[in-house]
Amino acid sequence: MCSTLVVDMECIEPLCNRLESRNAHLLQRLLGGLMTILYAGCADNSPFSVHAEKVEECGGLDLIDNLQLHENTDVACMVRTLCSRHGHPAQQL
Question: Does the reported pTM lie above 0.85?
Answer without folding.
Answer: no
